[in-house]
């Protein structure tokens, strides 16, 4: 294990738990199922999970299932992030990461033993974490104006978690960092995505499959 990495769950089998290909557990129905219907239908019909690869030098996957992988990352963060106790990504611990990894591996085959791949996945998780927290903050501000923010939790957050988030949003520390973050975003004019596809995927699709050169 590389320094600073997360040790994979222990397994006595020759096949690593982080690259297992057994049929995953699928929950019937639910919002997550609907959001990633193509992925879940594929797993049910084919009895196999898509394989995800992240090329050296890249921090996101490219290929047929890249969009579904990103969607699943978002679903996992929204449903299972410990919002009530760790609203900041930097507070996320190794046990939290292992839980996220296990949930990813229920739907995809990906070798999280590879340090570069693990770091790329961590970056994707962190981005989704921060983006959804921003969504929660906007929801909070919507009701803050008339003082009913605690009575109107976001529909994807439990009431007890929402109450603790409201308290956290009120902290001066968050208000200061939120203002600084807004100024930074306004100053950043570089566009990294076009529609739902990141530029890395467009670049891959423009490459000659034999030479790797952009055509």
Q: Work out the helicity level.
A: 40-55%
Q: Compute the number of structural domains.
A: 1
Largest sheet geometry: 2 strands, antiparallel
Mean pLDDT across residues: 78
Order of adjacent strands in the largest pleated sheet: 1-2
Based on helices, strands and strand pairing, what is the structural class?
A: mainly alpha
Low-confidence stretches: 9-33, 206-215
What quaternary form is this? single chain
Question: Care to describe what's here?
Answer:
This protein is mostly helical and 215 residues long. The chain has one domain. It is built from 8 helices and 2 strands. A hairpin with a 2-residue loop joins strand 1 (193-194) and strand 2. It starts with 30 loop residues before the first helix and ends in a 10-residue tail after the last helix.
Keywords:
215 residues, 2% strand, two-stranded antiparallel sheet, disordered C terminus, 2 strands
Helix-strand blueprint:
Blueprint: H1 31-35, H2 37-46, H3 66-80, H4 94-105, H5 115-144, H6 159-170, H7 172-187, E1 193-194, E2 197-198, H8 199-205
Antiparallel strand pairs: 1-2
Region (Disordered): 1-35
